[in-house]
Fold:
Amino acid sequence: MSHIVFEAPTYTRPKPDWKQWIPALFWIGVICVESTDMMSAEHTGSLLSAILTRVFGQVDVFALLLWNHYLRKLGHVVGYAILSWLLFRAWRATLPSPSGRSWTFAWAQLAFWMTVVVAGLDEFHQSFIPSRTGRWQDVVLDAAAAGGMQMLLFLLLRNKTRPQPATEPT
Structure:
């Protein structure tokens, strides 16, 4: 008589990939540099003025101020959306999903709130620099960018699964 042996499938939790934190930490460093006097409205405005006058000749001062304002706000949106995405990747690598999903609410929530904290600290830091202003409205803008990125990630990843690591034979 032959015996059939059935083994229950085992799940081995993959080890966290700490290297995914490097891009997120680098990006936080970029945000810290942008929070200094070097990237104040006066400095970005003079750079923008130099570029536009070289390309278009004399530029209207009010138009230049308006462009500088909107480009700086676009910088907030792009910068904090990227941070939110990088933090999502870092949390996904740190806290793997046992079901192999590519998106979880926990990762999105952690990435969103960490981005908001960085934005708040950035604006708080700027309030101590004479050439900068710390504005709660910028934190709201940054939070909206982080939330928008998390919604985009949800739409792109909600139905996808990640390949499971091969289990070692026993």
In short: The chain is about 65% helix and 0% strand. The CA atoms of residues 84 and 115 lie 6 Å apart. The longest helix spans residues 61-94. Residues 20-157 form one domain.
